Each structure stands twice: as structure tokens, then as C-alpha cells.
Amino acid sequence: QKVEPLKVMISGAPASGKGTQCEFIKNKYGFVHISAGDLLRAEVSSGTENGKRAKEHMEKGMLAPDEIVVLMVKERLLQPDAQQNGWLLDGYPRSASQAKALEDLGIRPDIFILLDVNEETLVERVVGRRLDPVTGKIYHLKYFPPENEEIAARLTLRFDDTEERVKLRLQTHHQNVEAVLSLYKDLVFKVDGNAQKDKVFTEIDNALSALLKRKLETDSAS
Ligand code: AP5
């Protein structure tokens, strides 16, 4: 019997480890990873009008306008691969209006993972983060340094990863998080994101396995 694929949302403050955990989850479960931030950065890089507008907001640590983000995420979510393999939505919804746009489409997740991390740790993680443009891998100068000199030489910084900008991003996060949480109250799975990344993943992995098992049981009983 075919079980409906899982629909997972992952949320947390800037640099709480969403991208890092999404890599682990995607590798184990095969869900399609949809990151609102990555979609926006791709638009910024391609230099479109939407990209230019989005960048103005992102540089100030503010949310990009709904007219840009909502359609972008919706289109990606409705692609056949996400429908068939299940999805892992990272950094969306970030406001009540974005959540409502999903509700209007009849889209609700099976679980809402919330990474909980102390504020000083967040700043340290942002400032040390580096990205490999070739593999897309996320590094940290102190916690996960690159494996060799060749990779080290090509690492890049995100344009919004300064201490000053992360403080603005944190403010935006605090202003919006409650509105989103209250909509998914019964689905929230809060994880201590201060721990090492594989420990954090073990907790998430246990929750997802249990959820899949339950789903298999209910789907085959119906
Ligand atoms: P987005 O790209 O979503 O950024 P963010 O929420 O600020 O989160 P980050 O990507 O910075 O961090 P992360 O949680 O993925 O952490 P990571 O795994 O990299 O959004 C960027 C901007 O786009 C927003 O500010 C907004 O303007 C716009 N935007 C996005 N979504 C939007 C929406 N829905 N609507 C409107 N606008 C939107 O980890 C961080 C660092 O820590 C890395 O170096 C990593 O190696 C390290 N690390 C991770 N886990 C651990 C660990 N357990 N221990 C030690 N180090 C760790």
C-alpha cells in the first residue's frame, strides 16, 4: 500500500541550523528540500526585477514582500517531485499571511520542527559561516572547517551574514515567529538546536521515523 509522503516544515532563528539539518533529512528520507532563502538568493543572483526588490529587503534583515515569496514557494511546492517524494519546507511560512496562503491551497504539514538556539550562539554561527559555491555545502570556520585548502580557497560569505545584519534578522524573526507557531501549535516539535549537529539530527530523525510509522499504520488501516 502506498503511503502519502510526509510534509515537513522546519523553522528557527537565523543560523539555528535549518540548512544543516535539511541536508541530513534530505539524505535519509529523500524529501524535496525547498528553502525560501535559497529560492530568493537564486532570484537575486539572476538579477531579475523581483531579485532586486527582494535584495533590498534582505539587506535590511526584513522579510521579502509576499508578492515575490508566496508564488515562488507555491510553484516549487506543487511540482511533481515534491508531491511524489514529500517535501521539507525551510524558512516558510514566516508570517501569518504566508501561512494563510498555504491554508488557502489546503496545504498543512505533518510536523513543524522548531530549532531552539541561544542568541549568542546564533551570532557566532552566522559570523563563522562559509558556503561552498561548488557543492552547496555549509561550513563553519570553527565548528566545521573545510576539508582541504582547495575548498577553503573558494568559500564564500552570504551578503546578509554580518553581525549587524543578523541582529536585524533576529528582530524580524522574533516579530513573526509567534503568529506562525500559533497556527501549527498541535504540530510543533521543538528541538534543542544548541547541541552538536548529529545529536540534533538524531532527535529529528526519531520524530520523523515515529511519524512515518504512525502514518503507515493509519494509512493501511483505512
Ligand atoms: P534564510 O536563508 O532562510 O536565512 P535564515 O533564516 O536567516 O537562516 P540561515 O540560512 O541564516 O541559517 P540556518 O538556520 O539555515 O543555519 P545553517 O544550517 O546555515 O533567509 C534569508 C533572508 O531571506 C531572510 O532574512 C529574509 O530577508 C529572506 N526570506 C527567507 N525566507 C523568507 C520568507 N518566507 N518570506 C520573506 N522573506 C524571506 O547554520 C548556520 C551556521 O552554523 C553554519 O556555519 C553551520 O555550519 C553552523 N551550525 C549549524 N548547526 C550547528 C551545530 N549544531 N553546532 C555548531 N554549528 C552549527
Explain this structure to me?
The chain is of the alpha/beta class and 222 residues long. It contains ten helices and seven strands. It has helices at residues 18-29, 36-45, 49-59, 66-77, 80-85, 96-104, 119-128, 149-154, 163-183, 197-221, and strands at 7-12, 32-35, 87-90, 111-116, 129-131, 138-140, 188-192. The strands form two sheets. It has a five-stranded parallel beta sheet with strand order 2-3-1-4-7, with helices on both faces. A two-stranded antiparallel ribbon has the order 5-6. The N and C termini lie close together (11 Å). The chain binds BIS(adenosine)-5'-pentaphosphate.
Total beta strand runs: 7
Principal-axes geometry comes out as globular
Percent helix among the residues? 40-55%
Proportion of residues in β-strands: 5-15%
- Biggest β-sheet description: 5 strands, parallel
Any low-confidence stretches, pLDDT <50, length ≥5?
Answer: none
What name is given to the CATH topology of the domain at 10-29 and 86-216? Rossmann fold
Give the helix/strand class: alpha/beta
Tell me the radius of gyration. Answer: 17 Å
Termini, distance in Å?
Answer: 11 Å
Look at the structure and give the mean pLDDT: 95
What is the string of helix and strand elements? EHEHHHHEHEHEEHHEH
Hetero groups: BIS(adenosine)-5'-pentaphosphate
Write the CATH architecture name of the domain at 10-29 and 86-216: 3-Layer(aba) Sandwich
Strand order in space, largest sheet: 2-3-1-4-7
Give the CATH superfamily of the domain at 10-29 and 86-216: P-loop containing nucleotide triphosphate hydrolases
Our count of helices gives 10
- Oligomeric form: single chain
The CATH class of the domain at 10-29 and 86-216 is Alpha Beta
